[in-house]
Amino acid sequence: MRQKIFLSIIIIFLVFITASVYATSDSNVNSTAAEALDGQESEQVTESQSNSSKELKEYEEVYGSKSYGLVAYILNKIRVFSIPVCFIALVVSLVVQNVLGAKSSFGPSNARDKGYKMIMGVITLFVIAQALPLIYALVIKGWGVN
Prior knowledge:
mainly alpha, 81% helix
């Protein structure tokens, strides 16, 4: 019983942490996103866009080609964003295995097996997403493909 409560609290905590609410004091409902942002937020957005553009240019310079640089940039972004996505998927698969597997109406072994398969799939995807940029860099830069 304590495990269920603990897992429920963790899931609720993760939902509240990852949720973002954007509110404006503008009374015009049909205003665009650019109108809703004031000076500081619009500067942050343009700064973020310029930083990503600079980072893409750096990848293009390092790899010596626009296409190789773009692929390396995309693989790096996948590597970064796979961490929270895989963490949340791992929590969901653990809930399926341990909570739903114990109280399943169609047999605990089916839900436990499904949760175990989900865990193995999530870990496999996580390892692939983390290793793919390294493998790409080794092939392109290390073996002299470029």
